[in-house]
Design brief:
Radius of gyration: 16 Å
CATH architecture: Alpha-Beta Complex
CATH class: Alpha Beta
Helix content: 25-40%
Distance between the termini: 29 Å
Strand content: 15-25%
Order of helices and strands: EHEHEHEHEHEHEH
Shape: globular
Structural class: alpha/beta
Number of strands: 7
CATH superfamily: Spore Coat Polysaccharide Biosynthesis Protein SpsA, Chain A
Amino acid sequence: MTPDTLTVVIPAFNEAQVIGSVVRKVDAALHREGVSAFSILVVDDGSTDSTKEEVLACRADGIPVQVVQHSRNRGYGLSLRSGFVRAAYPLIWLLDGDGQFDPADVHILFEHYREGAMVCGYRAKRADPWQRKFASFAFFTCVRLVFGRLGVRDVDCAFKLIPRDAVLALTSTGAMISTEMILTARKHHHRIIQVAVPHYPRRTGSPTGMRPRVVLRAFRELLVLRSRPPR
């Protein structure tokens, strides 16, 4: 079911080479799918390249995109929260800005969407180096040991349709926000629908998920979330 209205939240950090293409493909996909009204929010998490300028250039083509800019790199979780709180519509499409998802594949999410549900994509074939796959497996093994099975195949897949009211109380600032999002949805009895989505290799930029600071923050937040469960 194609929603009538939608806010797209796209976190980005130093993605100048690809972010303009992502925004244009999002706009084209939503027009093609017949979404009546939508807005696009790119959250620039302290980029040191021309990410912001590339996004603003899309506005000259009439694309309804805005930039939410952090003065410094504040983390993935805070980037998502900055976008979620500014969402103009009750449904959010979360899409990473690194070009590893094709916005045209949003039709897969729409085909399974039901009002009030969270539609979670899972990468049918994850197109990442083995090191990132192993690091993700190791971390989410720890998550399962702490919280049990979350009932979601690919927790940190950033290709989702999310009810806005399910994510306004999130507190994580880093990578744990994906886990907190699922725990919160389950606590408030949002239906979770899972669908396979294509995943593509990163062609530009550098991933930040394996940086020591990011990993340490994730484990710290894991312990905090264990002691202070979602509201």
